[in-house]
Specification:
Blueprint lengths: L19 E2 L8 E6 L16 H8 L25 E6 L7 H17 L3 E6 L5 H6 L7 E6 L19 H6 L4 E9 L7 H10 L2 E4 H7 L2 H4 L7 E7 L21 H14 L1 E8 L10 H15 L6
Parallel strand pairs: 1-3, 2-3, 2-4, 4-9, 5-6, 5-8, 6-7, 8-9
Helix pairs in contact: 1-9, 8-9
């Protein structure tokens, strides 16, 4: 008989599937943490994303006893090969404390990297990857694969330069970021013609959702150099609204679950996954828990494709 797919919701969810609750990443190959809040815009309620990490943990709670079973996405059990994952819990972020939240996220990410582990962050809005990416400064240079409906190249909005419309603009200013590949752009977002020109001038490779539907995920992976360290930044609104309705700005024509995990698999085959962020999930728009399960399964695909321990 197949395992039950009944989703349970608890006040204190367990560690993310297969991970060990821990206070540091030392001795682990990767570490998961939640970043409930980022840098808000004036008048924007960033609390709608705060329960995302909890929702992802709860979505897979009932699958924990099946952790040693075969995973058909991966072609092997999830933790085959001795992979050890820590769950560090959620950072004590605050809705309106943009500067403090950025400091907490960067400090946590840097500590994971210093422990020689791969950081995996569950946001929060799409401003949370800004300090996450900043934490890689001083280490090996990184490429970024952003999977998102929006390109996030605004220099500022409402006077704020660290908000969710500026993620890739701020990344482009970091000396340790040498390639940005952006997959899944579609519809109307915050980008104006000037932002499109700025991204192109910097050298960002933008592959739209329609391009991927027509030409496949290789149209994205062709822009990713071999044998590089790649941070994957996934905004849940990259997925089509039929598969991921629990986002702030749902729109038609997005990527499928299989297209997203094919991108993740392609990065792992061609390069190395050096970090992963998943943001912009809105638990309040997911009463059945199915969207959280979809997102959590994407995270499992990332974990399952990390470099295996020797």
């Amino acid at each position: 008989m197949p395992p039950s797919k009944t989703r349970t919701r608890s006040k204190s969810p367990p560690a993310f599937l297969g991970a060990t609750s821990a206070k540091s990443a030392k001795g682990y190959h990767a570490a998961v943490f939640g970043a409930p809040h980022g840098t808000p815009y004036p008048g924007t309620d960033n609390r709608v994303h705060a329960g995302a990490a909890k929702a992802f943990r709860e979505a897979l709670a009932s699958d924990a006893e099946w952790i040693g079973h075969w995973d058909y996405d991966l072609g092997r059990p999830l933790f085959d090969g001795g992979l050890k994952i820590a769950d560090l819990g959620d950072l004590p972020t605050k809705p309106k404390d943009g500067a403090g939240n950025r400091s907490r996220i960067e400090t946590c990410t840097r500590a994971i990297l210093e422990a020689d582990a791969v950081p995996i962050m569950f946001g929060g809005d799409d401003s949370t990857p800004i300090p996450f990416i900043a934490a890689y400064g001083g280490g090996p240079p990184i490429a970024i694969l952003q999977i998102d409906a929006h390109i996030d190249w605004r220099d500022e909005r409402y006077g704020e330069r660290q908000g969710f419309s500026s993620t890739m603009r701020r990344a482009s200013e970091k000396s340790h970021v040498w390639r940005i590949v952006q997959a899944g752009a579609r519809g109307m977002g915050s980008a104006r013609p000037q932002e499109i020109e700025d991204a192109a001038r910097w050298g960002a490779r933008i592959v739209t959702a329609r391009d991927i539907h027509r030409a496949g995920t290789d149209s994205v992976l062709a822009h990713l150099p071999e044998d590089c360290d790649c941070v994957i930044s996934l905004d849940c609104d990259a997925l089509d609204v039929t598969q991921m309705p629990a986002v702030a700005y749902p729109s038609p024509g997005g990527l499928t679950f299989n297209e997203v995990i094919d991108l993740i698999d392609g990065v792992a085959r061609k390069a190395r996954i050096a970090g992963f962020t998943m943001v912009e999930f809105v638990p309040g728009r997911d009463p059945a828990g199915t969207a959280a399960f979809t997102a959590a399964r994407i995270a499992c695909n990332v974990i399952g494709r990390l470099k295996r321990p020797h």
